[in-house]
Amino acid sequence: MLPAWTGNGKPLSRAGREPHPEVRLSIRGARHGCPDRLPRRTHLTKIFVSYRIVDSAYAVREISKRMAARIGRDNVFRDDDSLELGTQYARRIRKALEQSDLLVAVIGPQWLDVTDEHGNRRIDNDRDWVRVEMRTAYERDTPVIPVLLDDTSPPAVDQLPDDIETLGRSQFWRIRHRTMDADIGELLDRLIPGAPEVPPEATRHIQVNRADNNSNVVTNSGGTQHITIGGDHTGGL
After folding, report:
1. Is the pTM of this model over 0.90?
2. Which of 91, 161, 166, 216 is the most exposed place for a label (fewest CB within 10 A)?
3. Is residue 175 within 8 Å of residue 148, measured between CB atoms?
4. If you compute the radius of gyration of the chain from its CA atoms, what whole number of angstroms results?
5. Nearest to 11 by CA among 24, 25, 21
6. Residue 149: which pLDDT band, with cuts at 50, 70 and 90?
7. Domain ranges, ordered by start, for the chain
8. Residue 57 and residue 36: Cα distance in Å, rounded?
9. DSSP-derived secondary structure for 6-57
């Protein structure tokens, strides 16, 4: 049985008070173990992180901190609230996707089945932002790395819209809350080997991306790496 999750994405025990106790890291394909087939980069990389606020905001906050420890401050953006998107913001999201070399899709237990105000699955709406982000990545042949939280099952091909059904055949990485720091570190080691840890002072501030920010794309004046974090929004294109 999947753990219960709060609105901010933090898993709870059956009693509803403590984090879910699972601690094991799992690296496997959708059907078979194949950790060595994760795309390995020989150079520093731009990464776009896609997620649904409703079920993984807490995890994404922690992931962004760990990524900041690897690549430095001012290079990690994340959405803080569920937002109605305007045309200008849509362009920023697309620009970020176009400039990214990898898309990391953080998938929690509600990612597939979360519904809109009419009771329809968001993923079935071709204007759903998570679907738009992933579809854009596939259209550009950008590698998509699914990251599953705790005991979340990988989406099956027949549960996904045709334009992103490739996700159901993808290798995935699993992150558990108790071992999150190590799990994220090992994922980054595989995706961007050779990128050293940065000093703690370089990770003191993690910027939060909102719709009224001047830019949705992070520029790194000191190197060749940045991470842009997108998210699940109630609006569409």
Report:
1. no
2. 91
3. yes
4. 17
5. 21
6. very high
7. 22-229
8. 28
9. -TTS-EE-TTSSS--------EE-SSS--GGGS---SS--EEEEEE-HHHHH
Mean pLDDT estimate for the chain = 67
- Please tell me the predicted confidence (pLDDT) of residue 188: 82
Tokens of 38: 């994760």
Q: Could you confirm whether domain 22-229 is CATH 1.10.10?
A: no
Helix (H, G, I), strand (E, B) or coil at 142: coil
The pair phi, psi for residue 194, each rounded to 5°, is 95, -10
Look up residue 64 and give its two tokens.
Answer: 């962004």
In our burial notation (b when 16+ CB lie closer than 10 A, e otherwise), range 25-43 reads ebbeebeeeeeeebeebee
- Residue 99: its pLDDT value, please? 76
Rounded-to-integer distance, Cα 225 and Cα 221, Å? 9
Tell me whether residue 192 is exposed, middle or buried, using C-beta atoms within 10 angstroms of its C-beta: 0 to 12, 13 to 18, 19 or more. buried
Looking at residue 187, what is its pLDDT? 87
Please name which of 176, 179, 183, 180 lies closest in space to residue 3, comparing C-alpha atoms.
Answer: 176
* pLDDT per residue as tens digits for the range 90-130: 777 787 788 788 888 999 999 999 999 999 999 999 999 89
Q: Once rounded to an integer, what is the mean pLDDT over residues 213-236?
A: 38
77's tokens = 């953006």
Residue 126: both structure tokens together: 């071709």
209/107 Cα distance (integer angstroms): 20
